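quick one: magnesium ion bound model?
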Amino acid sequence: MSHEIITSCARMGSHSGIINLLPDRLANQIAAGEVIQRPASAIKELLENALDAKATRIKVIIGDSGKTLIQVVDNGIGMSETDARLCFERHATSKIIETDDLFQIRSFGFRGEALASIAAVAQVELKTKLADADLGTHIIIEGSKVKKQEPTTHATGTSLSVKNLFFNVPARRKFLKSDPVELKHLLEEFARVAIPHPEVFFTLHHNGNELYHFPISNLRQRLLNYFGKSINEKIVPVQEETDFIKVTGFVGKPELIKKTRGDQYIFVNRRFIKSAYLNHAIKMSYENLVPEGQHPFYVLLLEVDPAMIDINIHPTKQEIKFENERLIYNYIKVAVKHALGKYSITPSLDFDAENTQAMGNAGASGRAPTSISSDTVQTAARPFQKQPSEKAKWLEFYEEMAEVTQRELSEAKAVTLSSDWSKGTDEGEPIAQSAFQLHESYIISPIKSGMIVIDQHRAHERILYEQHLKSISDKKMAAQASLFPETIQVEAKYVGLLMDVIEELAYIGFQIEKFGQNTFVVNGVPSDGLRQSTEAFIDQFLETYAANMEIQISIQENVARSMAANSAITKGVRLTSIEMQELIDQLFACEMPYTSPGGKKCFITFGLDEVENRFNS
Ligand code: ADP
Ligand code: MG
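yep, here:
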């Protein structure tokens, strides 16, 4: 390779300088750090290569969370003997030839660095054959050194195995997380590729078990295969198209709103991307249906002209730059809103009629206008600010009236109860003559020095967390609601996690047993009961638990935290005065009442002097 020639020239030349060119092998190893950080990054590259090779069947075999084996077998176009050897060279790609191609990329890869990087830090075995060739090629390459190359019989397509990732870079190997964490990342990466390609058959095996089996289908079916059949009734389709952009996919009804940012997928030209900006657009379309700190479900596929985006700004291409981001933002907001409106989920029931009115003839079909500009999109968005009808105004009025009476009632009750409240004398503690609830979210109560505002969710989370942690460390079986045994399905990626915490859950009141591959039987739930179905609750619990695995906390603490986060009362729950007082009591009986388990403030106080200052400024 030309690079090697330059390298050796540099070594032979008179050493008047101190700068050396790095040998290829070392350069590859350093570059690998950028592209290949963990098993999940390797599987992403291999799957993308299989798709780029037009495969319609892709089989993934994983050993030990990808630490010992990641193998991808495809039925794509395969490689010639020359290409099979070349593909491991840096900047060897069949996908672009000149600079202009960079702006018209339709393939997933184009930099030609993935296989070079992987081969630098693993033991790689490649078997590949072109359709019209009799024999294929078998290559073994370890730490960039070719160990073997010979003809072989093989089906058309490619099989690439990555064994013992980072075998020659102990420092990186050491930084890999525990098996469940690496597996979780790996399966997530698999999903990010498999979800937007329902026309491709995928299977995934881990340590001999088939975790995923995705037959060729449509997008809805693929989502049911991955997320479970129970989401079928809870998703609504999104479908909008203009000359510039097409949006398809599904968004979740409010039932699918979760506390952890789990199931949110945006794909641009079927490439998974992360975008806080577009995420915000989607959240905005739900208006006030998504409470603070919670997250709707969505899987949206955007198709745009590759010339409108730059995918070359991030080493693993997870972030992209749009030519006109604001326009896309507005467009997505409108598209999602339209979808939700059609299914009577947001107040904007009548998108089509209103939209037509607002835009004249341009959007007669209910689509955004074809000559899309940010101005017109905004016009299209305005009709959502619906004028309330007369009837709605009256309803609102009556609701307000009802609320006032309710509040008066509870205040009256609070006054009678306040005589029982005797211990609130310490500086910070509420002297709860008349705690009251603000917007079904905060509890306000006078204290000696002024007033206290308690976040009801965080306070309850703190209380439950300390209770759960104690139950777990005491190792006493908790009281349970007797329950008719119920079977639940658990997502494949979470089965291992649930197995790990069955004992801890028992101390909190959940009696769970493994039943089948993805099936568990629940014989008991905590005596307080659950506000949602057992399956939905466990699913959310596991999702929080998995997210918490990123931070360094013990299993016990994680279980207590994730339980608390998912069972604490949320905002929007009306509390009686008795409940408010119990909550205040219990919060201040906690070891650490000031913050939620995640370290966020449970309450804030206002001094009288502060109030006074505000009036005088
Ligand atoms: P890139 O995908 O950016 O081109 P890679 O290092 O991932 O770079 O792959 C290098 C080249 O190897 C590709 O351009 C392609 O020609 C070939 N290749 C890799 N994987 C496969 C596969 N599964 N089937 C056919 N060709 C492949
Ligand atoms: Mg590639």
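Residues 121 and 166 are 5 Å apart (CA to CA).
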